[in-house]
Amino acid sequence: MNIKKLLKYTATAVVGSLAVGLLVACSSSSSKDTASKKTTVEVGTVGTTKPFSYEDKDGKLTGYEIEVLREIFKDSDKYEVNFNKTKWASVFSGLDSDRYQIGANNISYSEDRAGKYLYTNPYAKNPTVLVVRKGVNIKSLDDIGGKSTEVVQGTSTAKQLEKYNEEHSANPTTINYTDGTIQQILANLNDGRSDYKIFERITVDTIIKEQGLDNVEVIELPSDQQPYVYPLLASGQEELQTFVNKRIKELYEDGTLEKLSKEFFGGTYLPDAKDIK
After folding, report:
1. To 10 degrees, what angle do helices 201-211 and 182-190 make?
2. Is 61 helix (H, G, I), strand (E, B) or coil?
3. CB neighbourhood size of 83 (10 A)
4. Residue 155's closest CA among 66, 89, 87?
5. Ramachandran bin of 118, using left for φ above 0, alpha for ψ from -120 to 50, beta for the remaining angles
6. 54: domain range?
7. How many domains does the chain have?
8. By the 8 A CB rule, do 194 and 148 touch?
């Protein structure tokens, strides 16, 4: 082989090797990028239920549930979390359409929801109370017949009262459905536009204090009315459910849940240890 042919062959081989090397490098880089890409978990929340989910003075979404969920997905190799503010009913329609994989907005347990969605370990305990306008003769749930309240349709309270009316058709309670926030509902109660409201203690105490509602009183309900608070997952998200269950247990055991409970609730409002599996 003469010198010209040898040089030409050598140059061709070098170029070919470089091209192969570049293809391998690009392929390796592409595989790495694909492997490192995380799954975004979309969370639907109303964002007005302080101290569970709300916007701070700078417009940043925060609250006990928001910060717990951030901790759940912190440093995850597989998942990253994104929050979406929406209306209450849209949390569930979003779960139905898989627009959201998690709903988080002070959600308690119900058999209807358990039949459609996936519950995880609970991450808070929020006792239910009866908020009554002063001067109204209501001492317990036995006294709500003939009295009025405001509720958001589809909530556990709405279903509870609808069932009450079926069982007390001779003297039902008046249910006024609303799209208003719990802050607006309690303000209406304080101003005399309704007679009572069934809701969770933590939120009620926070709103009464912040809004200076001095025309209402809070009545404790029996211990069987002590709902836990859960993140609710869309059907088919069993793998995500396993991950969230594990992380809630870890955060419970390492004290993170208690720390956040004290920060946002002003005390320890956690599930019993036996209910964290």
Report:
1. 60
2. strand
3. 21
4. 89
5. beta
6. 39-125+226-266
7. 2
8. yes
